[in-house]
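Notes to self, Aspartyl protease family protein At5g10770-like:
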Amino acid sequence: MDSVEKSNKVLQRVPTIGCGQDNYGLFRGIAGLLGLGRGKFSFPSQTAMTYDNIFSYCLPSSPQYTGHLTFGSAGLSNSLKYTTISSVVHESASFYGLDIVGISVGDKELEIPVTVFSTPGAIIDSGTVITRLPPQAYPALRTAFKEKMSNYKTASGRSLFDTCYDFTGLESVEIPKVSFSFKGGTVVELDFTGVLYVFDVSQVCLAFAGNSNGDDIAIFGNVQQRTMQVVYDVPGGRVGFAPNGCM
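result:
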C-alpha cells in the first residue's frame, strides 16, 4: 500500500489494486474481483486502520435489485446472529472458515454425521457462486429436496447442476425451505433464490453441488447468501448473518 503525502504529512494510504487482463470461467461476464479475504493484500486488510477490518454486504436476489457493500461497522442489523471464524487447513490462509453442523430441508434435519463437515472443514466465500458440499452431504440434501418437489416436472441437468425442474406454465411454485446450522446455535434459513438457480423457466436447478472427494473443503457460496446481510468481524473472530438485508 502506498501513501499519499503532502508537506511531509501522510494524508491517505492508497490500497494496491491490480488489473486482470484475461478473465474467464463457468460464470462469464464478471466485471472484476475485489479481494475480501484475510490475506495482507485484501482490501479489508489494507484499510484496517480506517475500517477496523470489519465489513458487510448484501447480495441481491437478481440484477433488478440493489445490494450493498459497507466497510466498517455502520448500518449493522439488530437481527444479526454470529458464528465463530474457524481455522481451516487449506492451500491459502486467506479464507474465512465456518463450522457447519447441520442442514435442514423443510423442518427436518438431514441425517449427516457432523464429522462429514468437520473433517475437511468449510469456508464462506463470496467469490464462489454455488455452494459445494461433501460427497456424503450433497446426496442427502438432493434426496430430501427431490422428495419435496416430486409433483413438479423435471428437466435435464446443466453443467454442475444435476437436479433441475421445468416450471413452464406454472403461476406459482412451492419451494421447501433450506437451512444451515453453524457452530454456536446459529441457524441461517436461505432465501428461495438461494435454493434454486434459474437459467430460464424451463430449467430451474437446485443451487448446490457435491465435491468429488471427501477431503475437499466445503464452500458456502454467494448464491446461498442472497438477500441476507453478511458481516465479517475479523478482530472479533466471527461472521454474522441477518435476514432481509436487501431484496
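- Residues 1-11 have pLDDT under 50 and may be disordered.
- The radius of gyration is 19 Å.
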